[in-house]
Design brief:
Keywords: Membrane, Signal, Transmembrane, Transmembrane helix
Protein name: Fenitrothion hydrolase
Structural class: mainly alpha
Order of helices and strands: HEEHEHHHHHHHHEEHHHHHHHH
Oligomer: single chain
Shape: globular
Number of domains: 1
Strand order of the largest sheet: 3-5-4
Organism: Paenirhodobacter populi
Helix content: 55-70%
Strand content: under 5%
Largest sheet: 3 strands, antiparallel
């Protein structure tokens, strides 16, 4: 998700709001780079316009996904290999780590309320968004779910000996997570105060306290299924190639293999996955010139988030609705082609969207992580904003100079293109595995996948277009 607001548009080294002057500079740069094939402007975080050819890349990536779908369709049923690595993973105690996480959250709330007003200097934004959201999500997808240890609630509740008093209906848990995540996404994508330290401290305090009370009342069901980050990281953890067997030995399998083997999400959790993916997609769309033109805003004179709150709120809800309709329609069309009706197939197949969600996340935040990593390096020397210089980095100069080098920009683009393509291929592989389990007849299984594979190819093109589209 994007966290750009008026603060972000004024970051160091020319990361300013796009203006007419910026557009002229971009045009001059394009001329200097000629001769070159037709190129689209690719924005890389707040005013850095990367002029790169994208047409061939988009077609090639879509062709790769289509080819992978074809190969999977004609491939025999194969069991994912699972290697036993000669390593034992000791069980890490959850309570002490969770207590440390609680202290970290309370520290962020305190710093947000008492620290500097400048979001580039106050650690709370980096703690919440960069570490708690972006990095934690990528960690979960690669190494497994860290939330049982890193959550800021269960350790505290264990210390006080809390015993839940009520049973939360499991069917309602996923929908509660949807409601909380929708608020989370609105603050992130639409609120003008998503990086304001004082407001962010209030948001974080309310979120932490509300879920603490709910977990005290409803216990593990709320933690694992109704708290949105717990649900999100648990689902992403299914994609990790790493795992542990019953003896604590480390296992290695293909990325996403466990996603098709574990119990499918329920209806609320299915809606949650669709909400998470649609919000990630709208995050990329909301800053594009195309979207701003549609809602009647001149992208060269962007008035700020407060002026587009209503339109973007409608857009966020609309993105969730549109993706849900397209996905459910693709599943139903696949059943019609196969001549079958399988109860719960939409819930089983929704895990195939998880790799797409992860790669959208990784590609969209590539530039953000490069920049925020430098800010975190500087903040690490003075985390409490007390004028310290613990590691000698308090005066580190944050630089975006790498984005002025066409060769380095090309590497960034190649990485983004590659991860999006790979993620969609993994998604199709998961859908193939789910279909083969649901339909023993290989021909019917292949037919049932065709509409969803087509949707994934289209989503590949859409994702790459978002990376290449001009943005504010």
């Amino acid at each position: 998700m994007s966290f750009r607001n008026n603060y972000r548009h004024e970051q160091a080294n020319g990361r300013t709001r796009v203006s007419v002057r910026t557009a002229k500079i971009a045009a001059i740069a394009a001329c200097l780079l000629c001769p070159a094939p037709p190129a689209a402007a690719h924005e890389a975080s707040g005013g850095l316009v990367l002029l790169l050819p994208t047409g061939n890349t988009m077609v090639g990536a879509a062709a790769a996904v289509a080819a992978s779908a074809l190969l999977l369709a004609i491939a025999p049923r194969l069991k994912s290999p699972r290697l036993m690595l000669p390593l034992r993973m000791p069980a890490l105690p959850e309570t002490p780590v969770s207590v440390l996480s609680t202290l970290f959250v309370l520290m962020l709330i305190w710093i947000g309320r008492t620290g500097p007003d400048d979001p580039l200097s106050n650690p709370i934004g980096y703690g919440v968004w960069t570490l708690g959201w972006i990095c934690m999500s990528l960690f979960a997808a690669v190494f497994g779910n860290p939330w049982p240890w890193c959550n800021p609630w269960t350790g505290l509740l264990a210390l006080i000996g809390n015993r839940p008093r009520f049973a939360l209906p499991e069917a309602a848990a996923g929908w509660i997570a949807c409601g909380q995540f929708l608020i989370f996404a609105w603050i992130d994508l639409i609120s003008p105060y998503n990086m304001d330290p004082e407001r962010l401290a209030i948001y974080l305090a309310v979120y932490w306290a509300a879920n603490l009370i709910a977990m005290a009342l409803f216990g593990s069901t709320w933690f694992g299924r109704a708290e949105p980050l717990g649900l999100f990281f648990r689902l992403l953890g299914r994609l990790s190639p790493f795992g542990r067997d019953g003896h604590g030995r480390l296992t290695l399998t293909l990325p996403g293999a466990r996603a098709s083997e574990e119990p499918p999400p329920d209806r609320g959790e299915t809606a949650f996955v669709l909400l998470a993916l649609s919000s990630a997609s709208f995050d990329g769309l909301a800053d594009t010139f195309r979207w701003l033109t549609v809602i009647g805003v001149n992208p060269l004179e962007f008035p700020g988030r407060s002026e587009v709150e209503e339109a973007n709120t409608i857009g966020l809800l609309g993105a969730w609705a549109v993706l849900s309709i397209l996905y459910l329609g693709a599943v139903r069309a696949g059943e019609a082609l196969a001549g079958v009706r399988i109860p719960g197939l939409a819930a089983r197949l929704v895990v195939s969207l998880l790799p797409i969600l992860v790669v959208f996340h990784a590609a969209h935040f590539t530039v953000r992580l490069i920049m925020d990593g430098q800010y975190l390096w500087r903040i690490a020397s003075d985390p409490l904003v007390r004028g310290w210089d613990l590691f000698g980095t308090a005066h580190y100069h944050v630089s975006a100079s790498m984005f002025s080098d066409p060769a380095r920009v090309a590497l960034v683009w190649a990485f983004q293109t590659g991860v999006i393509t790979l993620g969609h291929i993994i998604g199709i592989a998961i859908a193939h595995a789910v279909a083969m389990r649901a339909l023993p007849d290989p021909r019917r299984a292949v037919l049932s996948q065709l509409p969803l594979a087509t949707l994934m190819v289209a989503y590949t093109v859409f994702g790459l277009w978002l990376l290449a589209a001009p943005k504010i």
